[in-house]
Design a protein that fits this description.
The chain has 17 helices and 23 strands. With about 525 residues, the protein is α+β, with helices and mostly antiparallel strands.
């Protein structure tokens, strides 16, 4: 077992890694060195629903960390203006229900597509989003009975690693990334992680090309058995010191710039949306992540079509007067991944490992996935090259799978109104994705015809995006023509009635979170 691990870089990636590693392997000496002068990107503020596994592993309940991080619930992503007609749709954390062996999406194509939008007909979450509802009742119960036990404190079933996780949690979280890093820093240092605030002046290598030690500005030499690169887009260890090549995704994902702003929000007046919004813009898309008391927002765009000044002007027009006088943070995005995220005795996690556009909130998912795989591949007294190859294959498969899923968002969108939206239709498609898109013109995605490598997305996510974007099968499944519709019609009615009950009985997100914060204040 590696006796000492040195993490270079703080932020979300560094402190998530430190906290998880110390919990998983308490006897390992963990040191984290971070600069006092380097700002973190700080835009990874929305997550997958599986982030709950991370907090569960650390033994943290929602009330332990959410108020400290101004966190909110995220039930879905709302895609606005991605269609030619300007309508929006939701990508919820909710699987389709099955009727007589076929999912509700397939039945919707046959029975309901001319009556009701598919997301409203097939899921309860869109109506909850439209009404700004909390996923929990005021007594703490989760609205989805199927997963209630997983949110029931000490009675909770033991959870598994990401790739073995079989349950669909019905919501994720949105939080202030810098506050989460601070919270996890406290968690980790209380459990023995050593924090060093300093600059790394030099990375010294051994004859075999592995890292021997770091030379710091004020603390001298830092040595370790394993080094974790959490230095973001710089890739200080993995790319600069070890020279590992970076595979660029710019030919597939055209957006290479972002503008980020933090906008105050009067939640008493406006409430809190329980979803992230992705709004299509002239040369990319804008995110809107509502936190408790402010909004994190930004514009991801392609510099081939807009200058920084043009992008900021368009974005400020989109935001309106709320953003007046607020400084914009301009960010150069490095989309792609390291050829190998583990090289010699160095593992890159977070932005230094790989990054795609934040269109599906995958940045923190990649961190969590990288950490969990590191734990399961953690070396003994010597580094096993077979385990390193296994780690690199699993991490690369996940990043590449998400890349292809995001390509689908642009390719399948009906928008063609600007040069950018015309250009994304000309992106050279990976051959496997091209074959799948041909299949999906005849039937919806299912578990057998999507990318089989683990990348965080299930088949329902593919069908939700394709139908929402207007890329639908030319007709419903012929097999359904030979089946009785009765059970399907009953299922649509039951789902609508359940949705109406939830809308009538769930509190708003603002009311629920305000109560949680008040209870925490009283307890303190």
């Amino acid at each position: 077992m590696s006796k000492s691990v040195v993490i270079v870089g703080g932020g979300t990636a560094g402190w998530m890694t430190a906290a998880y590693l110390k919990k998983a392997a308490p006897s390992v000496n963990v040191t984290l060195i971070e600069s006092a002068n380097i700002r973190t990107v700080g835009v990874g503020e929305a997550t997958f629903s599986t982030i709950k596994l991370f907090f569960d592993f650390l033994g943290l309940e929602e009330q332990d960390w959410m108020p400290s991080c101004n966190a909110t619930y995220k039930l879905a992503i709302k895609f606005a203006n991605w269609r030619a007609d300007g309508n929006h749709f939701y990508h919820p954390f909710q699987r389709y229900e099955m009727v007589d062996g076929y999912n509700m999406g397939e039945w919707w194509l046959k029975l309901k597509q001319h009556e009701m939008p598919f997301d409203q007909a097939c899921f309860t979450i869109p109506a909850m989003c439209e009404n700004k509802l909390s996923p929990r009742f005021l007594d703490g119960r989760v609205f989805d009975d199927k997963v209630q036990d997983f949110f029931a404190g000490s009675r909770r079933p033991k959870n598994s690693f990401l790739a073995e996780h079989k349950v669909q949690y019905p919501y994720a979280y949105q939080f202030d990334a810098s506050l989460l890093a601070d919270f996890l820093k406290g968690y980790a240092t209380r459990r023995g992680v050593r924090q060093v605030i300093d600059e790394v002046d030099e990375v010294k290598l051994r004859e075999d090309g592995s890292i021997d030690h770091l030379v710091t500005h004020g603390h001298g030499t830092l040595s370790g058995d394993l080094f974790v690169d959490c230095t973001g887009f710089r890739g200080l260890l993995i790319n600069q010191a070890l020279g590992e090549p970076f595979i660029d995704f710019r030919d597939a994902l055209l957006c290479d710039r972002a503008i980020a702003l933090q906008v105050p929000k009067d939640i008493e007046v406006h409430g809190i949306n329980p979803y992230t919004t992705a709004t299509a813009m002239n040369a990319g898309w804008a995110w809107d992540i509502p936190l408790y008391g402010r909004i994190g927002t930004g514009y991801v765009y392609s510099s081939a079509f807009l200058s920084e000044e043009e992008a900021e002007r368009e974005f400020r027009t989109h935001l309106g007067p709320d953003a007046h006088g607020i400084r914009a943070n301009h960010i150069k995005i490095r989309t792609g991944r390291c050829r190998n995220s583990w090289v010699k005795n160095c593992v890159a996690i977070g932005l230094s490992s790989g990054f795609v556009e934040p269109l599906e909130s995958t940045g923190i998912f990649f961190i969590q996935h990288g950490i969990e795989e590191l734990i399961s591949h953690l070396p003994g007294s010597t580094i096993d090259e077979e385990m390193v190859r296994s780690y690199n294959r699993v991490v690369a498969d996940a990043i590449d799978g998400v890349r292809d899923f995001l390509i689908l968002h642009y390719y399948a969108s009906e928008r063609m109104d600007t040069e950018f939206w015309q250009a994304v239709k000309q992106i050279p498609l990976p051959e496997e994705l091209k074959e799948r898109l041909d299949i999906w013109k005849h039937r919806l995605p299912n578990a057998k015809n999507i990318n089989p490598n683990y990348h965080g997305f299930e088949s329902y996510s593919y069908s939700v995006m394709l139908m929402g974007l207007g890329y639908m099968p030319e007709r419903s499944l012929p097999a359904l023509d030979h089946m009785d519709d009765t059970n399907a019609l009953l299922a649509f009615r039951a789902l609508r009635e359940r949705t109406e009950r939830l809308v009538a009985t769930l509190p708003t997100q603002l009311d629920y979170l305000t109560q949680v914060r008040a209870e925490m204040f009283v307890a303190a």
